[in-house]
Write a structure and sequence with these properties.
This protein is mainly α and 101 residues long. It has a domain of 65 residues: Arc Repressor Mutant, subunit A (Orthogonal Bundle), CATH 1.10.10.10. It has four helices and two strands. Strands 1-2 form a two-stranded antiparallel ribbon. α3 crosses α4.
């Protein structure tokens, strides 16, 4: 049989849209800064609370999408191929009904 025809396409990693955005941010940040982001960097970009970012990092780690070294800052390592990541979407500013002064 022809091996090219018998070969299955590589399985795409399974992650939610939100998880994909965090993974895409980690990859993009590493390309620009030559080091992984701190959780504070993700908090600033996504406009969420520190506990929200930490829970996402734990979720990504449990899912086998990233690896970290305990007690070492900026130790996030992506375990998925960059080609499988979605395009990083710009964050929409939060709209409020409160008038600014």
């Amino acid at each position: 049989m022809n091996q090219l025809l018998d070969r299955q396409p590589p399985a795409r990693p399974r992650f939610t849209d939100k998880q994909g955005q965090y993974l895409a941010f980690i990859w993009a940040y590493m390309q620009v800064n030559r080091q992984p982001p701190a959780e504070r960097d993700m908090q600033r970009f996504f406009g969420v609370t520190a506990p929200s970012v930490h829970q996402m990092v734990l979720t990504l780690e449990r899912a086998g999408l990233i690896r970290r070294q305990p007690g070492v800052a900026r130790s996030i390592e992506l375990l998925v191929e960059p080609d499988s990541l979605p395009r990083l979407q710009p964050i929409e500013p939060v709209k409020s009904s409160v008038q600014s002064y």
